[in-house]
Amino acid sequence: MGWRDIALKWAPTVSVVIALIAAAIAYKSATIAERALDAGTQAHERQQRAYVQIVELRFEGSRLRVIVKNFGLAPGLQVRSSAKFILLPGADRSLDEIERERLGAEVRYPFSIFGGETRGVSFKLPEYSSEQTLFVHLRLDYKDIFSVERLTSEVFRLAPGRGFENHGNFGQIR
Question: pTM, whole model, 2 decimals?
Answer without folding.
Answer: 0.65
